[in-house]
Specification:
Elements lengths: L6 H10 L4 E3 L6 E3 L4 E7 L5 E5 L10 E3 L3 H9 L2 H6 L8 H9 L13
Antiparallel strand pairs: 1-2, 3-4, 3-5
Protein name: YlxR family protein
Pfam families: YlxR (PF04296)
Organism: Cellulomonas chengniuliangii
Amino acid sequence: MDARLSSSSNQRSATSSGGPVRTCVGCRSADLRSVLLRTVVQTDGAGRPVLVVDVDRRLPGRGAWLHPDPRCLELAERRRAFPRALRTAGPLDVQPVQAHLEAAGHHQLPGPSPEA
């Protein structure tokens, strides 16, 4: 089992080390803001909401935080955590976040697809 999935001990270590702490919408464990990816909702050219990775952590709007780990992304998608955390109606496509993780070298785990 991944250490991030054990939230009680991770919360104590993250909060005692100083610095801003946020909760991952996937595994629900608290970690330093510097370790997590921030995602926000922006609108595309047609006015539809689109989930984007806020690399600089400066985009306006409500943010949802995620460990840069495909497992946390899968958990967040399965739990429908992004629309809830970002207070957006309807599902959001996580493909931009998945593409960011793959570009950063965090590859999807082998096994069944989350849609299955």
